[in-house]
């Protein structure tokens, strides 16, 4: 019916599919917060620099 090579190929396919799913779950779930947080911190630093220049 099925040969052992086909079984190994199917297992490899499932492994790659599972890794891809969890990688996308990680990227969608967490990376947006890292990018958003870094943008907020960059904005705060620019605002603080502008206030410091105005006080001089």
Structural summary, described in words:
The protein contains 1 helix and no strands. It is mainly alpha-helical and 56 residues long. The longest helix is centred in the middle third of the chain and has 52 residues, at 4-55. It is rod-shaped and about 80 Å long. The model has no long low-confidence stretch (mean pLDDT 92).
As a whole number of angstroms, the C-alpha radius of gyration is 24 Å
The sequence of SSEs as H and E is H
Output the number of helix runs.
1
The percentage helix is over 70%
* Strand residues, percent: under 5%
How many β-strand stretches?
A: 0
Mean pLDDT: 92
- Termini separation comes to 82 Å
Structural class: mainly alpha
For the sheet with most strands, the description reads:
none
The parts where pLDDT drops under 50 for at least 5 residues are none
Categorize the overall geometry: rod-shaped
